[in-house]
Design goal:
By secondary structure, the protein is α+β, with helices and mostly antiparallel strands. The protein has 10 helices and 38 strands. Strand 13 and strand 14 form a beta hairpin.
Length: 654
């Protein structure tokens, strides 16, 4: 039976509404969530906070129709909803409260930008985590500064340890706000059962780099005492504490804050001390249910999984499938207090993002879509996506996602390999493959798209994630080349028309690969690293390269140089287009400048594009359109595929 729906186009995915921060009310009768408006030409980013009934889906907007709304957090009785908003364009999120009568009012005077909220058990106070203006956003969240720390006219002065993330306790009725510390510690994440101690991820170094060495502590809000709970070998995320004092979290190798997929660990009070239980499963997020079970959500290969762990360590997987729940880079879900209902942002290759509900007692029915935020996109034919598997030269079994254009036919296709960021991240089955909406733009232009989960990816256990520590650009590049061989052998792609792109770590590998082999006809590194030595001394995350290279720039200077694309640029003959955000604090734009200049001096065809105001990626409509147009045009020119470009209006000039 023929499908006469129009195919999905690049302009369609630019109009897609992203969904995040899904929060079920304690009784499960309502769900709050944040909808990101699609980027519009010349318009500032905007998000909308919505509350919907889980029964009939009836919706009500919260707050204003413009500005940023985020972090919906229900009061224990479910009658009030705390959230954060930026209505004045300052870049700082302020604390607001939705009352039972649906009126909204500001609460307290929290210095800085709100990042996390927790209610007291009696509903009279809200614990707020706030970042000082000028603090760094995580690279996965843009890699720029929060708010403004300068007036734009005077000198910009920087000193170590200037900007912190602190805890504030706000009285809901009076608005009285007091800082509850802890002094000398930077709080990255927290959880609070509403009374007793707070569980937190903290570090003595408040810089973005300090997060890599953070530990788990318990903080007494009365006297400010801090008790060490766990000093991890790797990185930690998602602290959760229950009324009995049990503290859960995930621990694992992570290249990016907010993107830890690690072993679920519980520290249980035991007399005068405590004991550590590792539950034998991985997750990116955990939360306690009222009956003592632990809710978890995790990346699972190219899909995701969610469920609960009982007090004895028994694992009940409520759902497991080839889709994305939560964010594409970190799985998460929300549950009612009793675990009767689960809510999450759900998307798949044939399903645009929506809020969906799951009843564990009736799990065979799967997810029920509640919202219609992207109903119009369901009327589009989506490019067919399939799981592909191959074997590396050393025998390692690998997998990824192959997406082919609508109506692709049987002839071998030109291929673009899109390498994910991280490297401890993964490609999961999602509606718009690849970052910056580049995937649909390439598919729309006739290219097949390979999303490989090479060694070092998350979602396959810690041993797999650790496989490229000290070997970035080694076995992982070999995995990409083996994938291309496998697709060529299956007759799916044309070996002579293969390109490579990627963002962040994917930008590094797509800058590195053309200096190591001639497998690629063109490359488009985005937000790349080209020189690990200069990266270490200019990035806001110098612990990153020490962690992933397994050495430091003094003892390992030769290794830093050896692993740098710029050191091998003279032998590169692959046309390379470099795209970079001018305000990127994670991979500074000088990284792209170095590679551009080295390639130009080597006589290699190259081009550098910097996007003003953009950080570690970009969301501006004009920049998204321009970067997609340039990427497609570059591959069209060098892979002899086009011109068939149908990128959204606003194709590049110059």
């Amino acid at each position: 039976m023929s499908d006469d729906r129009p195919p999905l186009r690049h302009a369609d995915v630019l109009a897609c509404r992203a969904i995040g921060n899904v929060a079920l009310s304690p009784d499960g009768d309502r769900v709050a969530y944040v909808v990101a408006d699609p980027p519009r030409p010349g318009a500032a980013p905007a998000t909308t906070l919505v509350v919907a009934a889980t029964g009939d889906g009836r919706e009500q907007r919260v707050g204003t129709d413009d500005g940023i709304h985020d972090l919906p957090t229900w009061s224990p009785d479910g009658r009030r909803l705390a959230f954060a908003a930026d209505h004045d364009g300052s870049g700082l999120l302020r604390l607001l409260l939705r009352e039972p009568d649906a009126t909204v009012r500001p609460v307290g005077e929290v210095a800085g930008s709100v990042e996390q909220l927790r209610w007291s058990a009696d509903g009279r106070a809200i614990l707020v985590l706030a970042a000082d203006p000028g603090s760094d956003r995580a690279g996965a969240r843009g890699g720029t500064a929060i708010g403004s720390s300068a007036d734009g006219t005077g000198p910009l002065v920087r000193r170590p340890g200037e900007r912190w993330r602190r805890l504030h306790l706000v009285d809901v009725e009076s608005g009285r706000t007091r800082v509850v510390g802890p002094p000398g510690l930077n709080v990255w994440e927290l959880d609070w059962p509403g009374s007793g101690p707070v569980a937190a991820v903290v570090s003595g170094d408040p810089s973005e780099s300090g997060w890599y060495d953070a530990s788990v502590v318990a903080i007494d809000l009365v006297d400010g005492a801090v008790r060490s709970v766990h000093r991890p070998r790797r990185q930690v995320q998602s602290p959760a504490i229950d009324g009995d004092g049990r503290i859960a979290f995930v621990e694992g190798l992570a290249s990016d804050r907010t993107e830890v997929q690690g072993v679920v660990t519980v520290v249980v009070p035991d007399g005068d001390g405590s004991r550590v239980r590792r539950l034998g499963i991985e997750a990116t997020s955990v939360a306690w249910l009222a009956d003592g079970r632990l809710l978890f959500a995790a990346q699972d290969g190219i899909g995701a999984v969610c469920g609960a762990v009982d007090r004895d360590g028994g694992v009940d997987r409520w759902w497991r499938g080839t889709a994305t729940i939560g964010r594409a880079d970190a799985a998460c879900a929300s549950a009612s207090r009793d675990g009767r209902l689960v809510a999450a942002a759900l998307q798949a290759p044939d399903l645009p993002p929506e809020v969906a509900l799951l009843e564990p007692a009736a799990r065979e029915a799967g997810w029920r879509t509640l919202t219609s935020c992207n109903a119009g996109l369901r009327e589009r034919r989506t490019p067919p996506a399939e799981r592909v598997a191959w074997t590396a030269s050393d025998g390692l079994e690998l997998e990824g996602i192959l997406v082919r254009p609508v109506d692709h036919g049987d002839a071998p296709l030109p291929l673009v390999v899109a390498v994910h960021g991280g490297p401890t991240n993964t490609w999961t089955a999602s509606f718009s493959p690849a970052r910056l909406h580049l995937g649909v733009a390439l598919l729309d232009a006739g290219y097949a798209l390979l999303l490989p989960n090479v060694r070092g990816s998350s979602g396959r256990g810690q041993a797999f994630a650790e496989r490229n520590v000290g070997d970035m650009g080694g076995g992982d590049l070999g995995d990409v080349l083996a994938a291309i061989d496998a697709l060529v052998e299956r007759g799916l792609v044309d070996r002579d028309r293969v390109g490579i792109t990627g963002v962040s770590y994917g930008g590094f590998l797509s800058a590195w690969a053309p200096t190591q082999c001639d497998a690629f006809a063109a490359a488009v590194p985005v937000a790349c690293v080209s020189d690990w030595l200069s990266f270490h001394h200019t990035t806001n995350i110098p612990r990153f390269d020490e962690l992933l290279l397994g050495t430091d720039p003094v003892a390992g200077a030769a290794e830093y140089r050896h692993r740098s694309p710029v050191a091998h640029a003279r032998r590169c003959r692959t046309p390379t287009l470099l795209l970079h955000g001018a305000d990127d604090r994670c991979t500074p734009p000088t990284q792209a400048q170095e590679q551009f200049q080295a390639l130009a001096e080597a006589g290699c065809e190259t081009e550098l594009v910097l996007y003003p105001g953009a950080g570690h990626g970009w969301s501006d409509h004009g920049q998204l359109v321009d970067s997609a147009a340039r990427t497609v045009a570059w591959f069209d020119r060098h892979l002899a595929c086009g011109p068939r470009t149908t990128v959204a209006d606003g194709a590049c000039d110059g």
